Amino acid sequence: MSEEVLRGYHYTNPRAYNSMEDGYTYGWKGLLPIKRFISFGEGNSLPEEAYLGTVQGLLEPEPSSWKQNPEFPNLWACFLGKFC
After folding, report:
1. How many domains are contained in the chain?
2. Domain range holding 34?
3. Alpha-carbon dihedral of residues 33, 38, 40, 46, nearest 10 degrees?
4. DSSP codes joined into one string, the chain
């Protein structure tokens, strides 16, 4: 019987990657949620949690639903530009 393996993919910049390899990111152990999901001043009626830092992960390295999205054709480029 084989076990199913769940893989997650996290995109980051070289400085943060090197820090994670050393065990610390900006002085903290592990992934540090720095980037905000929603920028301040956007979505004014959202709860406070929407403005906190996040750590994003994907279940595929390059999801086709993001790369070839007819409604949001620039979604993948925007994601990589904002988080990497």
Report:
1. 1
2. 14-83
3. -120
4. -PPP----B----HHHHHHHHHTEETTEES----SBSS-TTSSTTS-GGGGSB----BSSSS-HHHHT-SS-TTHHHHHHHHH-
pLDDT tens digits in sequence order for the chain, 84 residues long = 678 888 888 887 787 777 777 777 667 776 777 767 676 666 667 777 777 777 778 889 988 988 998 998 888 888 777 655
Task: Report if residue 6 sits inside a domain.
Answer: no
Residue 61, domain member (yes or no): yes
pTM over 0.70: no
Tell me whether residue 58 is in a domain. yes
Question: Of the candidates 67, 42, 37, which has an alpha carbon nearest to the alpha carbon of residue 52?
Answer: 37
Residue 64 counted as domain residue: yes
